[in-house]
Model the fold of this input.
Amino acid sequence: MIIESSEHSATEQRRVAAALAEAHRQADPTTSLVLWIPGGDPSEIRLLEVSGSVSTINEVVPFRFPADAAGGIPYSSTLILLSEEEWGAVQDGRLPLPPGWDTHDAIEL
Done:
């Protein structure tokens, strides 16, 4: 997917986040949940993904990726990949997410 605009609007971010989510689901069909966490830096997309193929380490590790304008991704992105068990721990407060990663404002993609 190629994004023509470099504008950092919420609509544009959501469209790119949805494209990333779809690409990640295609790469890992055991992905059961993708949340876009809006807010923070307007030049960054933050995704939280839950996958059945991820080992449980009981630690939240953000993976950061640079923007790839030539590849149609004009935003940097940060991905947190969790196992089903870790997602349960996040939901009941036993495993904290990084500051600013509020799942109450998250949008399921």
Summary: The chain has one domain: 10-108. The two ends are 16 Å apart (CA to CA).
